[in-house]
Amino acid sequence: MLTISQVTEQTGLTAYTLRYYEQIGVLQSPNRKPGGARVYSESDVTYIQCLVHLKKLGLSLEEITEFTRDGCVMDKIKQGEDPAHFIPTLSKRTEILSKYLVELEARRQELDRIIAMTREKLAGYHELSQDF
User: Fold this and answer.
1) What is the pTM of this model?
2) For a Cys staple, 70 with which of 5, 24, 87, 89, CB 3.0–4.6 Å?
């Protein structure tokens, strides 16, 4: 079991953010020690890291809440639950990720153009500086 400070080190989120995610329902309340301190399992940390990745993709907290509504579907299916039960969830997740994939591809193309321009400028500057 991990403390909130250990989880913040592993995930890069602040304790405030973890508590906020818990408050708005993005993150389920973790178990607590008798004194009330939160304790997290390794699966909690894996789930939180998933939230971090979704946030980095650009998903809003509302989209993340929708995306994670049924929890870790892949784990549930691996544990024997009927995949057909999750078709609406899988469809919604596919829709959300597809939208962001298109945006990421567009950003990558823009970055590729910027990198190419930067390389051209650097080559030109190196060439000019060798003339002196």
Assistant:
1) 0.76
2) 89
